[in-house]
Amino acid sequence: MAAEGPEEGAGGSAGSGEAMDGDGDSASAEPPPPAPPDPDPGTGADPDPDPGTGADPDPAPCTDPDPDPDPDPDPDPGPGAAPPPPSAPNGAPPPAEPPPQEPPPFPPEFQRLWGAAQGSPHDFGAWTELLAYVEQEELLEAARRAFDAFFQRYPYCYGYWRKYAELERRLGSARSAQQVLERGLQSIPLSLELWLHYISLLQSSLDPARPESAQRVRGAFEAALAAAGMDFRSDKLWESYVEWERERGDLRAVTAIYDRLLSMPTQLYSHHWERFKEHVLQHPPGAILSPEELLWVRSKLGPGPAPAPEPPPEPERPPGHREEEEEEEPRTGAPPEPQEDLDQEKIRELVISMRQQIYAQNEAEVSKRWNFEDGIKRPYFHVKPLERAQLRNWREYLDFEVAAGSHERSIVLFERCLIACALYEEFWVKYTRYLESRTVPGARSVFQRACGFHLPRKPNIHLLWAAFEEKQGNVDEARRILRSFEAAVPGLAMVRLRRVALERRHGRVAEAEALLLEAMRANEGLPLGSFYAVKLARQVCKVQKNLGKARKVLVEALEKDPENARLHANLLEMEFGADVGQNELNTMSCFERALRSPLPHEAKLLFSQRRVEFLEDFGSSIHSLLKAYDEHQKILKAHAARKRAPENGSEEPDDKRLRPDDPSGLLGPQNFSGGGDPNPSYNYWYQGYGTYGYQSPWGYGHHYYGQS
Hints:
Blueprint: H1 108-119, H2 124-137, H3 140-151, H4 158-171, H5 174-187, H6 192-205, H7 211-228, H8 235-248, H9 251-261, H10 269-282, H11 285-288, H12 291-300, H13 323-328, H14 339-374, H15 388-404, H16 407-420, H17 425-436, H18 440-454, H19 459-471, H20 475-488, H21 493-505, H22 509-522, H23 527-542, H24 547-560, H25 565-577, H26 584-596, H27 601-618, H28 622-644
Helix pairs in contact: 1-2, 2-3, 3-4, 4-5, 5-6, 6-7, 8-9, 10-14, 15-16, 17-18, 18-19, 19-20, 20-21, 21-22, 22-23, 23-24, 23-25, 24-25, 25-26, 26-27, 27-28
């Protein structure tokens, strides 16, 4: 059987009741939603188990594999002990049960398709091909394995939940099919078609003659309305409930359902209003209204009509008088209309007029949402991206509903949005921010669904979840979230740095240092290794107040990556942050190391400029200043010669030029004054670190200009 196409999507159309919701989250005020009704509210067991389930009604008790060699001849089993195993009539032990038969091996084609899906778990096409195969071949055990694995990644696919249930019904039992649908409703409580399919299966499996059957069906309808009744496109579910109560003859229950429906903004609101008026006009008020409402309506109509006077006694008739003669006498005037009929018409008019105002208010609410609903072109889940117009429509619709102030309606709309936009991180983040200030368990449930099912490889939502748990005081849980995600998606610097920051905030400095050291060694020889070296040195210097240890980290990193200008710049920043009077030698060593390194010429020019400025402001020897100045003039002349070289037809090799995209160089624009003299500021040195959040601690606004 072919996989579902884009028309049906991976889910179902919300317009026809196929909107789907998140994993176990509620469509009411507090997610998660109410679970599907228990088949037997009293015991939780099926009152009428299907004989096709294959369950043994009286399984043999387990035997002790290593019995006591000297058992007590008359042990006291004690309360709650299992009964002894039955013995044969002649006193011989009962025959041993045959060992359970192993299921037959899966066909090679299934193994091939299963391997393809497991090898590319995010390939939706591989999964649909596997599911189509098991459905076509009717392999129940293989289907269970395939569908269960599929729903671990795509729980919003309403259509496949229904296919799974149908396969269980054909090859397994009605009870197993019902359990599949209950699992589906836990994942998609807003799936209207899934609710209707579940209720239909429940009705077909119940005995209508049993009194509890109606209660169970009604309980299923109420659970469906609690989960999905506020959906704008839930009309089919409401109508099914009304029709079921009407077929049972409970007209008062029909009225009660209409009273709830008439205040619910839905797509077919005017149709429901017309059907309600027909319901009122076609039945006696006493049959559709509760006794309390009927009494109240009669009181609004005023006192009832005065009782008719008793007729005078008939005069005695003479003997021989015939009644036939009296009947043959002509009667004048038409009979008056019964007063009871007039009262019923007034009651009907009052019942409708009382609800007219509710209908008008509901119509106004529908008109506010109509354009938003009209902009929803794909309400079901699909792996294909949504159009920008639909994403913008969802954003604006959510903002409108939140501003309207109804928490219940906001929850329902968020859940509807996450069905169509399940693969868009921004809507999950928006939902968690909305819930965090209202219900912490609800926000946690949304984080779990997003990270566990729909966005398992998205870092931002995992980082936000970890921050949320840390904010709630669950530091161990935050640590587990970050560690698990890094194990699943290794190599992300932002995740490792978040783990380091978490440990540092809670006083575990040694653990934070170990994490940075591990990352630095794992990326040795790569630009990322130098980045972690900078982070480690800054933490050792600023947090542990150990300048010598921090210097050692950066010097060792420079030995492995001498062309990395960022390492030189951060070492210089760290040395300059100490006491400049006592640390002048170390600072000058940084300059000398940078000028001797194989850095690009432009970087050396800037380091030379910085050295002159440092000695001018903080140097202790005029000889050092003059020497640095002379060396800077030589560098300037060499730089000017290289600038004139391209004009003469020769050009500097590409590998020697400092390019803006070179990760080992200093990024940022170069500013030259007339005559070829550079005019760099101290801020220039740290523009290249904006990617990592670095800022220059120096705000020098003056510059040293060399003489030509």
